[in-house]
Design a protein that fits this description.
Length: about 500
């Protein structure tokens, strides 16, 4: 199967080339030129498999230039019990017709692991498959979670090296500790005297520095990014929607063919878009509910057809959803209205920070998508309510979605799966506050974790608990102007 750009043009590339390049030459995102069907035969075959087996089967439909045995081996390693404690993506029952798909059992306790544990392996193979003999040098500027998830995913993967830059005072103490103690032969972490924009601009400068790129080339490196718009990060996310549906069938909660809705805490529109692809493959999905926090640009878009990023930006307790440009929405536009119109709307977005789709176009999107947003107070209330009603401790991002799922279930009485994207321990202080308690913070950086555990009788996830005994490997901060010099 070939991949094309959301903004048109005649270039068609293999999946390996799409994964290696990341973004198309005309600025568009890569999409498969057709969506494979989840036939009864394929469904039956995958139904009996474990998560890694299902992942390999689904990925091979999209990445048909990869050797299926190689994909299977990569999935085995990526989704092993050693990486994902308690299963890769279990679906748990909250109540009648209410479920939660838990995507936070990976090494960094957040949903980015679902893609970043496998994507580096896909990239490593893509280099070989495209005849590339250089080593991929991944540069990341992070304000928190992506950096750690990328480090964990790329560590000790052949033919890649990774360097993560972060603002020295722009990440939480736990995030800092997570990165400073990162293990692996091919990883490096560097704090920057500056804010996130300084780190991001520094990385952009490095990418556009011709002389530096030439000198890196001579040393055998090709610069790439671990960007969330790479198809290699999107494809693995399709798997858990299908797998969750199968698990619900297996548990006798639904019958095969019954429709189920998924409610997804959304930022960059990557997670929920993967759900849309699963639906287009033929998975019986009723509604895809796009849940936003106070940065509700997507709610407005889904309700009015106007995407307008000229608006106030809010810092919320669900920071991974504090986004005003949802890049993957471009892929939905492509599949709904085609490349030419998508390209034209993207030009509007570039020029005016705004575009407006036609009513008929909106109707096509509304045929499957709902949008709603949860404000800060409702988010905290939801954490408390969920704990009181079900005994489950959820994080702020999950709470944003669970509130919308609650509203949907109340209105329709239909089954709905809340997609849970982070362990509550990643946002322990907010969760403690939401549960009506006060954070004492008297036991160092990890104090909120111990306190949340004592308050709720739940266990601290192993990767976070292990932080206390880990040696710091990366120390000190440099000025943004020295970022390029720190590469080799
Ligand atoms: C990245 C992230 C999201 C948003 O996912 P998108 O694919 O960007 O929509 C939600 N919750 C958490 C915890 C995340 O890390």
């Amino acid at each position: 199967m070939k991949y094309v750009s959301t903004r048109g043009g005649s270039a068609r590339v293999s999946s390996a080339a799409a994964i290696k390049k990341g973004i198309a030459d005309n600025g568009g995102l890569y999409v498969p030129e057709r969506i494979p069907l989840l036939t009864n035969e394929i469904f039956d075959d995958l139904y009996e498999k474990d998560y890694a087996g299902r992942a390999a089967g689904i990925l091979s439909l999209f990445l048909d230039d990869y050797d299926p045995d190689a994909l299977y081996e990569d999935c085995r390693r990526a989704y092993s019990d050693a990486s994902f404690h308690g299963g890769a993506a279990p679906t748990v029952k909250l109540g009648e017709g209410r479920y939660m798909l838990e995507l936070f059992h990976g090494p960094t306790c957040a949903f980015k692991d679902m893609a970043l544990q496998i994507m580096p392996r896909l990239l490593s193979r893509a280099l070989t498959m495209t005849g590339e003999d250089r080593t991929a040098y991944i540069l990341v500027a992070t304000s928190g979670d992506t950096g750690k998830a990328a480090l964990e995913g790329y560590r000790d993967v052949d033919r890649v090296r990774i360097k993560v830059f972060y603002p020295v005072d722009g990440v939480s103490d736990i995030q800092k500790l997570q990165m400073a103690t990162q293990e692996g032969k091919n990883v490096s972490v560097q704090a920057i005297n500056g804010n996130f924009d300084d780190a991001q601009n520094g990385v952009k400068k490095i990418f556009s520095d011709q002389a530096l790129n030439a000198s890196l080339n001579e040393k055998g490196f090709i610069l790439t990014s671990a960007n969330s718009i790479n198809w290699g990060r999107l494809a693995p996310q399709i798997v858990y929607y299908i797998s969750s549906y199968m698990d619900l069938c297996k548990a006798g909660e639904i019958r095969r063919g019954d429709r189920v809705s998924f409610c997804v805490p959304t930022g960059n529109f990557g997670n929920i878009f993967a759900g849309y692809i699963a639906y287009r493959m033929g998975l019986p999905v009723d509604r895809l509910i796009c849940a936003s926090n106070e940065n509700n640009i997507l709610t407005d878009f889904l309700n009015t057809g106007v995407y307008d990023r000229n608006r106030k930006f809010y810092q919320t307790s669900s920071p991974s959803m504090d986004i005003l440009i949802s890049s993957n929405l471009e892929r939905l536009l492509y599949f709904t209205i085609g490349a030419d119109k998508t390209a034209s709307y993207m030009r509007d977005l570039q020029k005016y920070g705004r575009y407006e789709i036609k009513k008929t176009e909106l109707a096509a999107i509304s045929a499957i998508f709902d949008g709603g947003f949860t404000d800060e107070k409702e988010t905290f209330d939801e954490i408390k309510t969920t704990y009181e009603q079900t005994g489950r401790v959820i994080d702020t991002h999950t709470a944003v979605a669970n509130r919308q799922a609650r509203i949907y279930a109340g209105r329709t009485g239909k089954p709905v799966v809340t997609v849970s994207t982070a362990s509550p321990y990643k946002f322990a202080a907010d969760v403690i506050t939401a549960l009506g308690s006060k954070v004492k913070g008297d036991r160092g950086v990890l104090s909120p974790l111990y306190e949340l555990s004592e308050l709720t009788g739940t266990e601290i996830p192993a990767p976070l608990a292990a932080l206390s005994g880990k040696a710091v490997r990366f120390e000190g901060a440099i000025d943004p102007s020295d970022m390029a010099g720190s590469l080799v």
